Structure formats: C-alpha cells, structure tokens
Amino acid sequence: MARNVVISGGGTGIGLATARVFAADGDRVLLLGRRAEVLERAEVPGALTHAADLSDPHAVHGVARHVADTFGTVDVLVNAAGGAMGPAPATGAEDRLEAVARTWTAAFGRNTLTAALLTEAVRDRLASPGGRVLFLSSVAALRGSGSGAYGASKAALHPYAFDLARELGPRGVTVNVVAPGTVEDTGFPGAGTDPARRDRPAAETSTGRAGTPGDIAQTLHWLASPGARHITAQVIRVDGGAEQER
C-alpha cells in the first residue's frame, strides 16, 4: 500500500535521494524546501512540492494546512533540511562575540528549529500505528568537525528524538536519527572541498570511500519499513566505520 511521505530539504542532496527511493517504491511524496525553483527542478516521479521557510512558525502553519489538505495522514516524516555553513560574515563594527552569536543562531535555526517546528506541526497527523519520524543528523554531532555550531545544532536533535520516541511509542510511531559521515555531492562537512581534504576522511573509513546520498537514503528507507518497526530512539551512524571526522 502506498504511503504518504513528507521530506524536508527534498530538493537537493540526501533529501532528494531519499525522495527518489520512496517514490520508486510507489509512495506518495511531498517535497518541502525554501526555494521553489530548486524543488521544481527535482526529478522525482509523481512528487508534489511546497516551498516554505521551515524556521518560520507562520510558514510552518501553512505547511501543516497544506499537508492536511494534500495527505491527511502522514506515514513517514523525513527531516532532511539543513546543512553546514561557515561563520556568518562580519558586518561593520560588529565584534567577535556578536559574530559568534549570529553563527550559532543561524546554525540552530537551519538544523534544529526547522526539524522541531515541522515535526510538531504534523505530529498529530502521524499514522497510528506505523508512523515513522526520521531526523538527519551528522557524525559531527558525536565528535565535532571543526565547526562547533554545526555539530551542536545536529546534536540537539538527538535528545529531542529520544523524547519523541517515548511520547509517540504508545501510538506505534517510531523515531530515529541517522548520522552520516562524509557524503559526496552534498554541502556536508568534507564534501566539495579540495581533493586532499576530501580524500582524508574517506581514507579513514573501513570501506575506503566517502558515503553517497544513496547510502543515506537507503538507510532512511529501511528505518521506515515494517522490518524496522521495533527500532526506535536510535542514532544510526552511516560513516563506513570512520575513526574520526575532520
């Protein structure tokens, strides 16, 4: 039976790869993202799109109404919106602490608040039983990657997921987190940099390569499957057994 799948950050990278996997399985997919033009270019057969800033509560109210009108019930929610970013550029006479505050605020807004607002907006529509909530974290949340703000904003998703798992478990809803290592063709740490820096994390894996968006998408798809119905409140590392993240 086809399921209703909502994916934030569905226009690029891991979110897009995940949307394609679910669509190929015959599921109905709704892609969410900030940029309408990116969503419209996504090549996901049969997918619907809706552009919104998921860090804005007013906009997320609109997303909730759209989900209600389009799907009614949500079987799978994948929170893939977010990503790494450099320090916020200084403006005028701004001092270092002001720049730090803006960098950390931006990281939590992009990686934590988007997931929390969207999840809270649709939690009452999750299929009971059988609903799945999935968060995209990062190994940076576990061991850092040179940007404290990014890793911290991803780490904040872990206790939130654990709390949700306890709250939603009696309804038959599972909640899990996937923490990728270095992934090619994304904006995550280690990707898109010079070859020497990009190849170093790959060399530290047991598999001898960086991950791909498809690797992460298949893990998310499996966690949403009936076979994973007794797996909840877990952080699943998908990093090829890497010893450390740089």
TrEMBL record:
<dbReference type="InterPro" id="IPR057326">
    <property type="entry name" value="KR_dom"/>
</dbReference>
<dbReference type="InterPro" id="IPR020904">
    <property type="entry name" value="Sc_DH/Rdtase_CS"/>
</dbReference>
<protein>
    <submittedName>
        <fullName>Oxidoreductase</fullName>
    </submittedName>
</protein>
<feature type="domain" description="Ketoreductase">
    <location>
        <begin position="3"/>
        <end position="186"/>
    </location>
</feature>
<dbReference type="Pfam" id="PF13561">
    <property type="entry name" value="adh_short_C2"/>
</dbReference>
<dbReference type="InterPro" id="IPR036291">
    <property type="entry name" value="NAD(P)-bd_dom_sf"/>
</dbReference>
<comment type="similarity">
    <text>Belongs to the short-chain dehydrogenases/reductases (SDR) family.</text>
</comment>
<dbReference type="GO" id="GO:0030497">
    <property type="term" value="P:fatty acid elongation"/>
</dbReference>
<feature type="region of interest" description="Disordered">
    <location>
        <begin position="182"/>
        <end position="215"/>
    </location>
</feature>
<dbReference type="InterPro" id="IPR002347">
    <property type="entry name" value="SDR_fam"/>
</dbReference>
<dbReference type="GO" id="GO:0016616">
    <property type="term" value="F:oxidoreductase activity, acting on the CH-OH group of donors, NAD or NADP as acceptor"/>
</dbReference>
